[in-house]
Prior knowledge:
CATH superfamily of the largest domain: TolB, C-terminal domain
Radius of gyration: 33 Å
CATH architecture of the largest domain: 6 Propeller
Low-confidence stretches: 1-7, 13-20, 83-89, 527-534
Number of strands: 35
Distance between the termini: 83 Å
Structural class: alpha+beta
Oligomer: single chain
Number of helices: 11
Amino acid sequence: MRPQRYIxxxxxxxxxxxxxQNYSTSNKKAIKLYERGMEVLYQGKNDAAMNCFEQALVExxxxxxxxxxxxxxxxxxxxxxxxxxxxxxxxxxxxxxxxAKRHLKAVVETNRDxxxxxxxxxGKLELSDANYDEAIKYFETYLELNEKKxxxxxxxxxxxETARFRKKELANPVPFNPKNLGASVNSPxxxxxxxxxxxxxxxxxxxxxxxxxxxxxxTKEEEDLYISLLKEGKWNSAVRxxxxxxxxxxxxxxxxxxxxxxxxxxxxNRIDGGGRCDLYMCVNKSGTWNKPxxxxxxxxxxxxxxxxxxxxxGKTLYFVSNxxxxxxxxxxxxxxxxxxxWTEPVNLGPEINTEWDEMSPFIHFDDRTLYFASNRPxxxxxxxxxxxxxxxDGGPWMxxxxxxxxxxxxxxxxxxxxxxxxxxxxxxxxRDGGYGKMDLYSxxxxxxxxxxxxxxxxxxxxxxxxxxxxxxxxxxxxIQRNTVVANTSSDAQNxxxxxxxxxxxxxxxxxxxxxxxxxxxxEVWEREDDGYDKWKPITMDIALHxxxxxxxIALRNVFFETGHWEILxxxxxxxxxxxxxxxQNPRLRIELGGHTDNIGQADANQRLSEQRAKAVxxxxxxxxxxxxxxxxKGYGETQPIATNDTEEGRGENRRTEIKVL
Length: 661
């Protein structure tokens, strides 16, 4: 029996005892049929019970208890049918819901106070049929009748909130024109749970298909990861990812890092698993994916873990779990990779998670916008898509916003990701007209639920002298907040890197590799106009200078107050990287050179440049580097590397340099 039925039965038992078996009818034959119906109902014989209650109503159509029991049983049958709903069952489901409503209305129209929860159940049935005005009326009536606390009152309040929300959303639809990604991605099988690289060129998704009869696996269907590449604006034919990523087991519910070289996915019932479903990670090194490894017992518990999404900071992983300590069924959690291991997962808290289910999170490339699905009451039905934002300093998540109708419908709407520029969303849907039951679609995201635009930087890291490709560590620091916002590396085989950043900051790039001097530069950009479509990706190739005598580099992220030599706090990350290089290369000796533009008197510029070089020299010594490995010198305005006729050129000339001695 469903919990709702117990409410009716317990009430009627209580009513009978309280009234000394005084029913709403005095018809003895009707009462006898009713009591016989209750007996067979307790024996699990629904059809026989329904027949008894219907016969009781033939004897007396005003027998309210019989109406209530028939309404309860028919509501139960309709709910079960909906859970396995096929097209042939829909009309049957509707019939039982209509009959349940008819019996409930017979009760409330005869005696509105007889059983107040009947109003709540009427509201629920009208809500499920999208009759929102009727649902609102029934929920409001119950709340007027009943001032007591209890489950029915809570149901009425939630139902009223949901009905009002859906009515408002239907009256204010958002722009929505989904387009199927086409036969190169979709197939007669199911495609869902997409993930995308920051440059928008690589799409990875899960495909479910019938398992071959020759395999020994214990499931009838198999889930594998597929990949498609964007070429000249079109998706190439998707191909199954090779082993060891895919196996004879099920792999799915994955995410791919912004540069496409780290992938996390969900796998269930593996020998090395800690629970029913666990999170795994694999890395692409020089074009080859290594063997997936379990994230371990800190992240994976005896519960269900899955549906990961990875932040641009290169260390924060969000995922879904029903582990202990949550707020409801499925919750969204996060873990951070620190000191070579994953930290104890932390729940995202009550602003994101509820007593219902929160699933399929996607952290955007701006690292401050989170999309996810939830079946909480303020939705259109089933799972709805929501978005939550936080401040750029990593503050708390704000109250989630529903993406709106018709993006969200009465069915399950799930699995949404958004491109770096915030314009395009990709999601899975079982809408009509696809290649299979579940296909991938794209649509233009309404402006009010877009993330901060993220600009994608891409380029190649090479040896400045030989042109050889270099595997380098790339960290991007938010200069204003002195925090690392993105962490990636260039590929050892082709030197390529990809990194995305929110398009509203000033950033310092720090590129380092063994045997090379640090490369640093600052980046800030502005859009050409107010249109989102005018954001352009930036190609930035980086040449690293080897640690050899005579080599020079400019420290582009060492800052001073205008006309002074006190080092600003924003400079510390870069100077600490220089300290790190000196510690890693104990034979390295360097000169610190200060340079200015030609504004002001030459002798004043000379003194300023020397004081700035000395300030850097003293900072490095304080960090534990021996003074005999360092010298400093001021060059004033004597060694310009750009014109002094423009502000941009003068900015290039104002610099601190390192020269290898």
